[in-house]
Amino acid sequence: MQNRLETLESILERLRASIRKSGLKNSKQREEILSVLYKSGTHLSPEEIASEVKVKDRTTSISSVYRILSFLEKENFITALEADKSGRRYEIAAKEHHDHIICLHCGEIIEFVDPEIEERQIKVAQKYHSKLISHNMKLFVICQKCQKNQTKSPNSSGLPL
Question: Which fold has domain 1-95?
Answer without folding.
Answer: Arc Repressor Mutant, subunit A (1.10.10)
